[in-house]
Specification:
It is built from twelve helices and 13 strands. By secondary structure, the chain is an alpha+beta fold. It has three domains: 1-63, no CATH class; 70-128, no CATH class; 129-300, no CATH class. The longest helix has 20 residues, at 304-323. Residues 268-280 have a biased composition (Polar residues). It comes from Neisseria gonorrhoeae.
């Protein structure tokens, strides 16, 4: 759901709706400037709002809420049932590449420093989020030179009062302020985590020097080398609006952050919500050159979901091409994603519904 709150933004949202409505993927999207209709979609955002304030909203009932923690545990359990071995509480001490192109990883048990295990593999996939930068640097590959990481955390107000959370069943996105980066778009969300419902508003930018929530405060200092110092400084200078936005966010008091929340939830009171960090994300990325495609790294980035699909698709495609020794093996991507390489318009509504229904 999209919500805007001034005349210029209302006109913009109307035009955007008119364009998107012609696309099959958005044919069920609704638009309204009627306050009662918007209140039906998301009651909390309209209660207590100034009657003279222009408002408009787009709404789609086809949205989803994903508990990524639970989803990850389910996927790991599924893979274990297929024979995949998983190791937990392991720390990668070193990564080296042998003359035949294979990778050798030396790992240690975080609970028992005396226990060590050496692994050898043809393909190496670094999917450690913010922690991938440290592993990439340990690999020593030329493509890893020049990468740096800026650990920016996301802060949200959270309301866990069941009576309040049950009154909101939507993800309501606003519009970024003039000059603000797209990542700053505020949203008021329903979140279901481990069976409990929460109401969350954010994000507000925070900063910690650890790349992961449970990482070390020395992660950032130890990651800075001569080859990535200039790219990191250059990134800040070349993206001055983003730099100013982040600095401004860091200077905000809790009261100033709460004032932003009131624009989306006018009747929220300071005593019914609290601010909580929801994770770190290393924001700097540099494109890999195409060389020997035996190692792929996947750092944390925004917008994460869109890039995650693109990166995962690229990785799977390379494995399809590199590892399929038997020509009779059908590539996995077309089977997993029937719409791969087909536009939503040419695919038609039938294929779209088929994909949506696929378990």
């Amino acid at each position: 759901m999209s919500l805007v709150m001034n005349e210029d933004h209302c006109r913009y949202l109307q035009k955007r709706y008119d364009v998107f409505k012609t696309q099959k993927l958005f044919e069920n999207m609704e638009f309204s400037t009627d306050r009662n209709k918007i209140s039906d979609w998301a009651p909390l955002i309209m209660r207590g709002r100034d009657e003279n304030q222009p408002v408009a909203a787009n709404y789609s009932a086809e949205g989803t809420d994903v508990d990524f923690g639970r989803l990850t545990r389910q996927m790991v359990k599924y893979l274990q049932g297929k024979g995949v071995k998983t190791e937990f509480n392991r720390h990668v001490e070193d990564i080296k590449r042998e003359s035949d192109g294979a990778w050798v990883l030396k790992t240690a048990d975080t609970r028992n420093p005396d226990w060590q295990l050496t692994l050898r593999t043809r393909f190496l996939f670094l999917g450690a989020g913010g922690g991938a930068l440290t592993l990439l640097q340990k690999s020593g590959i030329p493509e890893g030179k020049g990468y740096g990481g800026l650990p920016v955390s996301g802060l949200f107000f959270r309301n866990s009062n069941p009576e309040t959370a049950e009154q909101h069943n939507a993800k309501v996105y606003g519009q970024a302020s003039v000059g603000a980066p797209p990542m700053s778009v505020p949203h008021l969300d329903t979140r279901n985590v481990d069976g409990k419902r929460h109401l969350m508003f954010g994000p507000y930018a925070g900063f910690r020097s650890n790349f992961l929530k449970q990482g070390s405060f020395m992660d950032l200092p130890l990651s800075i080398h001569m080859d990535n110092l200039y790219p990191m400084l250059r990134a800040g200078w070349a993206n001055m609006p983003l730099t100013k936005y982040l600095l401004g966010e860091l200077r905000k008091t809790k009261e100033e952050r709460f004032a932003s929340l009131l624009e989306y939830y006018p009747r929220q009171t300071p005593t019914t919500g609290n601010s909580s960090p929801q994770g770190n994300a290393s924001k700097s990325l540099k494109r890999l050159r195409k060389r020997r495609r035996a190692a792929v790294w996947y750092g944390d980035c925004r917008p994460r979901r869109r890039l995650a699909r693109r990166i995962a698709g690229s990785v799977a495609g390379r494995i399809d091409r590199c590892a399929a020794d038997d020509p009779a093996d059908a590539p996995m991507l077309p089977r997993a994603r029937p719409v791969l390489g087909r536009s939503s318009e040419r695919a038609g509504t039938g294929l779209r519904h088929q994909v949506e229904r696929k378990p």
